Amino acid sequence: MQDQRTIRERLEGDLRAMLSRHAKISGHLRNEDREIPLDWPEMAQFMENDEVLEALEARTRERMEELSRALHRLDEGTYGTCGSCGNQISAERLDVIPTTPVCADCV
């Protein structure tokens, strides 16, 4: 498993990227960077695109929460310990899913 500093840098970098993505999506949904169409066919496409953006925004928020919780576990000293059974989470699993709070047996 990577050392705590490397893990923290990875998690914080991912969190910064998600914060940036969230700001862009939110701005787009607030129409900061686009014109609202006036005709019905274009408005329908506009609304459909917003539905996709809203789903992306929701997933981005979920990812930011996962990253924040993983950073919190690092701060508490519980990172790498399964929140369900208390066993160690394998290094391989943490390398692939660094935000996981549980071991593979408890999934």
Explained architecture:
This protein is an all-alpha fold. It has one domain (4-79). It contains three helices and no strands. The chain has helices at residues 4-29, 40-76, 91-96. α1 packs antiparallel against α2. The longest helix has 37 residues, at 40-76. The chain is elongated and about 60 Å long.
Which runs of at least 5 residues are low in confidence (pLDDT < 50)? none
Helical content band: 55-70%
Please count the helical segments: 3
What is the typical, i.e. mean, pLDDT?
A: 95
Question: In percent terms, what proportion of residues is strand?
Answer: under 5%
Number of domains: 1
Tell me the radius of gyration: 19 Å
Principal-axis shape equals elongated
The N- and C-terminal alpha carbons lie at a distance of 20 Å
Topology, number of strands:
0
| Major sheet characteristics | none
- Judged by helices, strands and strand pairing, the structural class is mainly alpha
Series of secondary-structure elements, N-terminal to C-terminal: HHH
